[in-house]
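Lecture notes, unit on protein representations.

Consider one protein chain, 195 amino acids long.
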Amino acid sequence: MAVLYFDNLSGDPSLDWLRTGLTDMLVTNLSQAPGLRVLSTGRLYQILDELGHRDDRTVSAPVVAQVARRAEATTALVGSYVRAGGQLRIQARLQVSGKVDPEHLRLQEQMRTHCMYPPCFDLKTAQLMLFGLLLMAASEGARFHAIAARRAGASFQELHAVAAMAGLYGGLTVMNLASELLYKIMESEGAKEIA
């Protein structure tokens, strides 16, 4: 994925820093997603420089296509921002720039299923393990596997134990994320305490 600089449509040059600031923030966050390859901001700058579009005020569709092609990215994230009253409105959209091979997707999903649900683990155990692994990566995806573990019969005590193990190695960030996730799940289920 290539995340392009955002277009400043506000007419306010004091907001120009957001053009690269939003891109930097998104690249940093998206780069943490497992299985997603994201073009670095340094490489984006280099490609735009090579194409002669480094200082363009807006990013045109042909430039997006050229950047994606050079970066070998199948998807580009482009966006803009504008001031509306006292608020700043940010718009972002994905552009698929490459052809997606359905057979590749099928094989990828088959591999994912094979690795995530091996026959030696029951569904609850697999979901608890996935919850812990994603928690260690401080990924919001941990929430989905915690919910799936609950649906597969995991108790809050088991989720808490997995969170404690992940926090032992992942530190305070992981523990804070775990606390927040488990609290939201308990709240959504109407649970009062860990049983």
